[in-house]
Sequence to fold (909 residues):
Amino acid sequence: MASAKPAEPQQPPSEIETTLTRMSQHPGVLGLLIATKDCKRTKIVAIDEESPLLLQKDEYASLCTSISGQALSVIRDIDPADKLLFMRIRTKKHEIIIAPEDDFTVICVQDPNTAS
Amino acid sequence: MPPKTTKTTKATTQKTKTTTLTDKSPKKNQPLPSASNRPPMTSTGLGGFGRFGFDQQKQVIKPANQLKLSETELNEEFQLMLNTTDSFMPSNIVRFNFKDKQFKSDTNITHTRTHFSLDGKAVYQGSGSSQGNQASGQQASEGKAKLANAFNISTVGTQTQRLEPKTMLVDTDKIVFEDFSYTVTQWDIFDSYMQDQERQKVEKEKTGKKPGIAKKAANQDDTPLIPLPKATPMPANALEPSGGGVIPGEFPGLPGMSGESLLNQQSTSTTSNVMALAGAQQSANVSFETDPGILRALQVLERMTLQNTFEGISEDYKFWEDPSDAQKGDSGGVLPLWTFVPSKREAKKKTTTCIAWHPRYPDFFAVGYGTFEFNKQSTGAVAVYTLKNHLNPEYFFTFDSSVLSIAWNRKHPPYLAVGLSNGVVLSFDIRDQTNTLSVSKLDFNRRKGDVKGKHTDCVWGVVWEEEMLSSISDDDDELMKRPDRSEPKEHDEKKQEEKRHDGEEREKPEARPRTQAGGAPEEEGASSSIEGVGTVLSVSSDGRVTRWRREKDRMVPRDVMEIKGDTDDALDGGEDDEEQGETDTTDQTIIFSQTVSGCSCVSVHPTRSHLALIGTEEAIIHKVTKSYNGETLQKYSAHKMPVYSVAWNPMHPRVFLSAGADWSVFLWDHTLDQPQLEFAFGSSIGDVAWAPFSATIFAMCSADGKVYVFDLNINRQEPLCEVQLEKNTRLTKIAFSAFDPVILVGDEKGKVHTLKLSPNLRKSYAEKNSVEEEIERMEKVLDYAIRCKEAGM
Fold:
């Protein structure tokens, strides 16, 4: 692979990095956000400068994490052996896809109307 | 003292509410008042005077809410008792007994009340051992020396000095109080139980004893039975009204967690510590990227965004049925779905050389990239795609020469066998590899590199061998024989077929040259290889059919047979046909000088796995048996140019198709030497494939970019569908999905097209005919073919 992150000159770009960049270039995707569970640290990948993710990253991080936590609690209360994989919130303007993991939450905002 | 009893007193009768002046009860025998019997209040307010017999005018004032009792009730006698128990002492004191480690009721309750006590400091004067008593000490020194010897031992009770208890104030460290709040949810408890189970399982394995003992051993560790929350700063969102959204992972020491997890929890618990953990992992960015959970989530998200974007295609794939088929009569069409274009550098500008759907997962398939032009050998690649993500393959591997054939292992889903153009045969688990294999990393692949007996030319076909070879000899295999025309014999055939199935288990493998019996031990050794994954059969242009066994780091080949050219021609001496390679036709007695035919395709019979068809570059198709000492059973020659593809019918046991560079496709019955049906096209056919759900539907792709779909049940001469997929592009391979009515077509530019068959093309799929019905249909087709031949068509 040709591209290498300037911050880590010795490591090849990891699978996660390549997937992130590839995804941020998908048609309609406004950005991707990875946040830790307590929303202290976030990582945002977005190609658009004006992306709402960039402008409101803290809100996105904390609110989406908390609602996915609630949803996780619902699913697991119903059946503790089950687990939440991801949730989609379709709004008038965008679609927010949230995938909670053990330590992180991955949030993707896509505008499905620009998609073909 | 005997308990004193008080006599009952009679309550004074009250006639009116207001004060009365008469005092009816004589006060002469006034009993001593006790606590429960209070003298009535008098107007003077001093009930005590009544005791002394004052006969005053008493006004009895009754409060308004005093209980009114009737005469009988008033005269009712109540027993009152005095006893020596202290009624203020509780009788149910329970104390924790540390010896028994449980709470026990304390029955020994003293009823003594001490009103005053004073500890004296008096010491027995006469005792010699009293210390601090000056007087006695002096006396002792004055007297004889107190030597304890055998004659002068006095045992005297000594009074030890009583140490005065003093009250002393001590300052302790400030006790830190913390508020801890947590919302318990059912799944939280479940998680804790699960973790405990895991811990116990691990313990059990460690100690290797019975679970009871293991548990005990576990408790004897340093871990407390009920680990208590350690004092750590409270996480920030502990007090939020989260209503269940609090994540347990941040809270330390929840009951039920083991010691190790406690420690782990410690490190991830607090807000500040999360940062510390991240900080410990070098830089802020790295922790995001090393988490495998994120990769999983990202993969899912990627598929979801693609699904959003290309929603139309996904829906078409699942739901679209071409409504115009109803008006089209018999013919149908194909709907293009996704197009898979490799984005990786290694696969760009390469030809799609092989496509293989995964046998188990409906959306998974592998594509091999390389080149068919032999003067321009270059690297090759294999990409494993899923239909859910057409932009990026799930797995991608590169090799140092073109990939020409791939095959999935049916029983072990992650194993893939690859045949390259330099003669290398590989098989590997796709999960084990890193995503791109550089050339130098091929060492750990199962290559046969230095192994003797490697192929010297392109490997055109690889097939996994998993099943045990059939133990029926071919002579007795009724199903493979052509039935006679008359009805009764067909019934017989069916009966024999049933008998065959019953007897298969019981039948001993007879020593016939065509069965595996002779070489059984060797065979079993080869087919049930060390790792049990299976062996790979490969055919190559050097004319050899080789079976590869997987060993630790390489594949070990064993030749099954060589596909020989037409020996008659060789013996006749120098007939100029298409035989290639090194020949020594002058010496007719030397057997090994027979020419070999390069094999270009292979197809294993779906039910009788010892039979295989191998198409050669000499335009001859060999039916061979793969058993120990393989040999050619029959040859079919009808093509005039190399055979590019052969395929057994998935349902009908006797029928197969062959396609070649001579622009034609033949349908054969393996018992007959001549093809039954012939289809001619305008250009060479790259590949032909049967539909897995029918015995009469097949498709082919040609070098002029067209895809043809036939259904012999409906039309025996013309395709139901002829579609120009691409212009000026050769279509190289075609493959039917086993689960959906979808075909993949690969072209020489590296693209793989997904096409969905319209309803007319897949009537059998919709009808879900049984296998027997399909076989019947094929039989009718064969009959038709024979009739055509007899009629001289």
User: Anything to note?
Assistant: Confidence is low (pLDDT under 50) at residues 1-11 of chain A.
